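This protein record is not my work; I was only asked to verify it. Where you disagree with what is written, explain briefly why. This is what I was given:
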Amino acid sequence: MSDEPIDLQDALASFSEIWSPRIVTRVNDYDIRVAKVAGEHVWHVHDDTDEFFLVLDGALNIGLRDGTGGERTVTLPKGSVFVVPKGVEHKPSAPDGASMLVFEPSGTLSVGDRHEEVPDYVDVTTGHPLTRS
């Protein structure tokens, strides 16, 4: 990891793929990832960890299922944070595109421990290293 400040806008400008997070740094055993997002992700669950979202640009919707058949959606405008508790099925989406920062344990799969079928545009990854020039 870098011992220099990291400009998040520069980090986001270094790649174009959507739903393909880049690891900008680590804090203890946690990755700090940035991602560009557009359209829908997949319904998925992280069984053993919460997932922290910070919207850097645009707006992010997060669909949530409560396990009893109920659903709700939270909308996060730019600058908003939200934590999806472990074990809660969720589906991020950004109809108009957005960028976000995600904070979760290193090695956490982007589609969780359980998920629906993954479309080609969603990168199944534990995060890619950030490459900077």
